[in-house]
Write a structure and sequence with these properties.
The protein has about 100 residues and is of the alpha+beta class. Helix content is about 20%, strand content about 25%. It has 2 helices and 4 strands, in the order ββαββα.
Length: about 100
């Protein structure tokens, strides 16, 4: 089962207008993102949710472009999303909204 190893490109994806990987540390099996408000944490969780659901249309960034590399060497982009073999789960505000009733 493949996992996300790195994010190579994000364009027009929220705060990430034109991000390209410039030697950022690779992701591990489990990852924790933290930072200041407005630094892109929720936007990254949105990217992972798009990959999980295999649907860019579910995000507010329908015109976004991205490239994510899996540990098996494959690259997932907005145009190859539907054939992605990644099995990831994203626990974010959208997950809470869809699954938890207070």
């Amino acid at each position: 089962m493949a996992a996300i190893r790195s994010i190579k490109k994000l364009s027009d994806f929220g705060i990430f207008r034109s991000y390209t990987d410039l030697g950022v540390k690779e992701l591990g099996k489990k990852n924790l993102f933290f930072g200041w408000n407005g630094s892109g944490k929720s936007t990254l969780s949105c990217l992972f949710e798009v990959i999980e659901k295999q649907a860019l249309q579910t995000s507010p960034f329908t015109d976004a472009k991205f490239a994510v590399t899996a540990d098996d060497g494959t690259t997932i982009t907005e145009s190859t999303l539907s054939s992605s073999k990644l099995n990831i789960r994203t626990f974010n505000q959208q997950f809470i909204k869809e699954n938890i009733q207070w």
